[in-house]
Design brief:
Length: 228
Amino acid sequence: MDGKGDLHSQDHPLPRGVCAHQAREEELIRFTTFIVTTYVEPWMSAHCSTSAPATDLALLKALAAYRDKEIGRASGKVMARHMWYVSEELVGLSLFDEATVVEEKRAIVSAMQQRLGEKNPPRRADVALDAVEQRSLALFATTNSVGLVTALGAGHDFLNVDPAEWSGRDDYTTARRRARHLRVVNDFAERGVALISAFCGAITRDEEQRQHLLQVVERHRALYPCAK
């Protein structure tokens, strides 16, 4: 121990087993912190079609701002490749989400009426991780977004009315009910596998330690089999 209180000096190295145990414990703390603070909430709401655009965008923002930059970058790069629900054609689902505030709905409708979409819009949005904080749902909406509303088969006249008045309209409530019954594909589960793979790769490349991390996941699934 030197004058700075260094207990890990070369003169007194810790036993190898102790160091390995401490490293594993630190990695598990990083893992569980990430899951609890960042991933649980979007995972639990993944089944809801109308909140999918907001959920995906919020998760990407959380990953971009995550305090553990190594994990945030690795996970964020994966998530950025799966932004299906903020595409031009699907971002309109957020119009039927009760959590979307009226001001946001107004901005989305305005974009749907004024911003010309691509002739062959991409199936997923291209979102740069370093610029996602400034993005809102309305910035992804275009004239192509009207197609989703039309496909719901309840008409889209409500788009010409202020969103504050939608709840009293039959066409909107019918479209909302149908939108809520849309099946969300298992893409979020696939993202989960990709994200956790990226996460494990970011904090450890040791196969034994990776297996310990995966055992934590398996234990959680056993305790909460209906978490989805």
